[in-house]
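Predict the assembly for these two chains.
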Amino acid sequence: MNTAQPPSYQNLKKHLGVYHARAVQRIKDHIPEKGPRESLYDLVLDYPTRGGKGFRPGLCMATCNAFGGDNELALNTAASLELFHNAFLVHDDIEDESLLRRGKPTMHQKEGLGIAVNVGDAMNVLGMRPLMANISILGHEQAWEIFTEVEHMVRQSVEGQAMELNWVRSNSSCISEEDYLEMVLKKTCWYTTIHPMRLGALIADVEISLDEFNLLGYYMGAAFQIQDDVLNLVADEEKYGKEKGGDILEGKRTLMLIHLMNHCSKKEGTEIKEFLGKERSCRSAADIEWIMTLMEKYGSINHGIVSSKQLAGAALHEFTRLFSSLPAHPDKEMMEDLVMYMIHRDY
Amino acid sequence: MNTAQPPSYQNLKKHLGVYHARAVQRIKDHIPEKGPRESLYDLVLDYPTRGGKGFRPGLCMATCNAFGGDNELALNTAASLELFHNAFLVHDDIEDESLLRRGKPTMHQKEGLGIAVNVGDAMNVLGMRPLMANISILGHEQAWEIFTEVEHMVRQSVEGQAMELNWVRSNSSCISEEDYLEMVLKKTCWYTTIHPMRLGALIADVEISLDEFNLLGYYMGAAFQIQDDVLNLVADEEKYGKEKGGDILEGKRTLMLIHLMNHCSKKEGTEIKEFLGKERSCRSAADIEWIMTLMEKYGSINHGIVSSKQLAGAALHEFTRLFSSLPAHPDKEMMEDLVMYMIHRDY
């Protein structure tokens, strides 16, 4: 009997929490003093202060320090990443018709669609302000380099989002794992892991090419996304903060759903496609249970768990290649913990 | 009997059309070659190629030339303005639940809500690309100055949008004309007139302060917005390209509706508020007729027309102050025509 418990990652969470809090404070510093509050600037702070995990500012700040930089110089960029991330979530929740985010009603559920679209837009433009503040700290040239990274990051996210939305809209059932991983690279990896590390390294003035971080970021980000989607199926709703099985309700093409559609019988495939073609409001709790049972039957959830662990293993390998020669540093340790946490987290 | 016809502005339209076409071509040059087409990049070009009037690129390019600059240097910025404008329209149509834009179904009506939100986001990030291309033409420093102008422009628009959405959401009936003009300054003027002129002047390296353009832009932009809202009530739907009376259906707080609410009887005021408190789907064509009749009764539409003309008169005065000492130039003439056109246009 295996009684080994996964580590609790208390140190990691504390460490990330500190970076997250610093980024949120920097976001607050960039909110204009004048302008509408209740219908705009108070709402801009809503998602960021719901207590996200702070992966993005954490990865950016920790990479900067681990590579010998001064991560105080990366704080504006980290704040910008956190703001863009939350802007993305506000619009993503609209696009996916999600009900809950971090345990509370989503922005459009709470404030109405119009205000929510506009708040997301406001967050995107406010995300530019810390990048402008980089000029006086890092000079015009590096400030533009950072900006170029951010432009690529946001653009990749909208491209990934377009791929995913199009699958739902066209009720696609012929999606390969390769398609899925391309979508995740675009939708998740660039902005969750690759660019945060690239930006931290850029500000640390590393001598290696920033492209060296791409593979590590891809493995980490994909492991993270798949684990996130597994948790949507199996996690404790209260801890996880989203509706359990919400992805199925949304018709989201997760690795598990794709695996199921590629492995079930023809008859089941037709039924699944029919279910996914229904209006969201016509999908019931019983439908979710039925899809979950099929996923169990075909080992789709297990396939997701295994894939996530494999990707995390590859990430660990890449991490060693890039970081092992660096001197010991709490931020280097944190980065290693973070790779492991991607597959051990239960919310 | 006054048989004078307003001028047809054929020259102006042609001149603006050339600038618009150049801006749209430059937008196309900045669309990435790879990436989703049907669900993203083809749609990014949808609104810009529906044939807008091209006020923003036109004002930017013409101001640059009129002040002795080379407006080829302003083309990236003009393209960026046109793209941000169209991004704003895609999201604005969602926020206002509009059905038609430039004579065709709005993006969310045509492509669904999720895709439309994402396409607007894509347009906003693509709007950054021409600004990045400014670096190699104008240098790091001026490229940042332009960026700072654009950040302010987009931020003012979301602030104005928040004010307007909040009036609809809270079913406000106590709005002064001063409140209205503040909202229009934020929502319309900065991005339609003030910043396009400031940016053209900046690129022309003018010696006067860019703030000198603020008052002219404010008068022009407010005249434009009020005339736009008047046209929504009285214009030929086919020419105008939006649903006639659509603003009333949306509960939009136009100058005319505000004038009506501030001048009608208490009983009528209660009825109007009740109507505006209804779900949009519960508002009928008869309701629109009834509000229109009340607007006629209290001279609200006429008040809008007169206000627009007064603002355009003030704009003409400001225009003379700023432009009269400049040498003759087709772009200077175009600017003057444009001020007049703001109040004469019938679509």
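The longest strand of chain B covers residues 100-101. Chain B is about 75% helix and 0% strand.
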